[in-house]
# Entry
Amino acid sequence: IALLKQAIALDPKYARAVAGLGYAYSLKGQFLTKPELYEDAVELFQQAIEMQPMMADGYSGLGMAFVAMGREDDAIGALRRALSFAPQDAKVHSALGRALAIGKGKFREALAEYEKALTLNPLVGWAAQQIALCCSYIGEFERGEQAARESITAQEQFTSGHEGVQLIGSY
# Structure
């Protein structure tokens, strides 16, 4: 956070640093359970977007902060805007899936986003875990079991030193 603030002090129009600080505040808010940091993050993402209106990372971070704040409609709008600039970004598809599933209970739509994320990046084991969850909600149990097994494999690859994304709760 200190280095991002220093970079912004040197160049107040450095949109990537402003967005990076927004991400840092979002993560800090998440891990320290300080919801007021999400407000700071939203303000920073909005500033970054004003500086670079086509920056997908700004919209993506904004959407993720809105999800954390329970502002699902705003989150979905921001994440769809991010995808308009970066349609191949697996993280944004996953974030949109999260907003649709957790915020709106739209498990079929969320499933499509998680599947797109996993297609774009097969190492996004978290998406496989969420596919399994969505499938359980819509009654597609065999498909869900297959996704759960993929999620476990991704976790095992991570813990054995191979490439992968660490998952909490795969087993």
The mean pLDDT is 90. Residues 141-159 form the longest helix (19 residues). The radius of gyration is 17 Å.
